[in-house]
Design a protein that fits this description.
10 strands, 2 domains, Rossmann fold, 3-stranded parallel beta sheet, about 300 residues, about 15% strand, alpha/beta
Length: about 300
């Protein structure tokens, strides 16, 4: 409230701001009844086919963030509703968080911290990342920024992506490989693809069987991209060394979840992109997406896969 983004929004037209999440689809529809545009801050709300069939005058749904897995893009297109997002706005923040999870897992920082607070003095080998190979699955804005940071600490870079860019690869010294090769060669595997029908469950038991027992998995993309049951099994039986996770199948993570009981997992509550800088920049871009759509020149449009 009171931000530059809110000021800009009220220049465009009348605005109702709701802080709390609607608890039912009916409450969501009631809140946005008659609205020409919606800005959605978090992925709690589900914008499904039923929503769009009852959305009335809605012209544009502007998503703060890049993930649109909570939006039925096909139904939106059929209803003539533009879906926009804020690509790249959280790239630096999420990439920093990716590196933080990677280092925390490699250096066993949470476990050592807990042990020292219990008056212990733990010893044992840790993982040095310099000279190790980072395998990036996806090379959008966040994947690219992660590559730059990892190169800065001396990691070797390989990647698989839907859209290879030879110019960027040359810039950071990155090699494009197929997924099987990435799994086999990586010391750290970091996920940066969008959740879609093509990517749900793409990293599962077969992938883990190709990784070495010293491999660390980091996921700051979306939980369902990884087969969570297969991940837990791999972490429990030593097929993977560790994992750093910011996203999960179910969020918030349920009480007594198996991942919370594993000492080779570092957890964060889907907050990789939550910083004051990202919040303000993302809100302002979301508002400008509304303005652009209203003016007949939509920007940052997300199309069905």
């Amino acid at each position: 409230m009171g931000s530059a983004a809110e000021t800009r929004l009220r220049e465009i037209g009348d605005a109702d701001i709701h802080i709390s999440n609607p608890q039912t689809p009916e409450e969501l529809l009631k809140r946005v009844s008659g609205a020409d545009g919606i800005i959605n801050i978090r992925a709690f709300c589900k914008f499904d086919a039923d929503f769009f069939s009852n959305s009335g005058a809605l012209k544009v749904l502007s998503i703060w963030g890049t993930g649109t897995d909570h939006v039925d893009l096909g139904a939106a297109e059929s209803a003539g509703v533009i879906i926009s997002n804020t690509p790249g706005v959280a790239a630096v923040s999420v990439a920093e968080h990716t590196l933080a999870l990677m280092m925390a897992a490699a250096r066993q920082i949470p476990g050592n911290d807990t042990a020292m607070r219990a008056d212990e003095w733990p010893r044992g080998q840790m993982t040095q990342l310099n000279g190790k190979t980072l395998g990036l699955i996806g090379l959008g804005a966040i994947g690219r920024q992660t590559a730059r940071i990892a190169a800065g600490i001396g990691m070797k870079l390989i990647a698989w992506t839907f859209h290879p860019d030879d110019e960027f690869a040359a810039e950071v010294g990155l090699e494009f490989v197929d997924l099987n090769t990435l799994y086999e060669r990586s010391d750290v595997v970091s996920i940066h693809v969008r959740q879609s029908a093509d990517t749900i469950g793409m990293v599962g038991a077969e992938a883990f069987s190709q990784m070495g027992p010293d491999t660390i998995l980091v996921n700051t993309a979306r939980g369902p991209i990884v087969d969570e049951a297969a991940l837990i099994s791999a972490l429990e039986n030593g097929a993977l060394a560790a994992a750093g996770l910011d996203v999960f199948d179910q969020e918030p993570l349920p009480p007594n979840h198996p991942l919370g009981k594993l000492n080779n997992v570092v957890l964060s509550p889907h907050n990789a992109g939550i910083t004051p800088e990202v919040t303000e920049a993302g809100l302002l871009m979301s508002v400008e997406n509304i303005a652009a759509a209203f003016s007949g020149n939509p920007q940052n449009v997300v199309h069905p896969s």
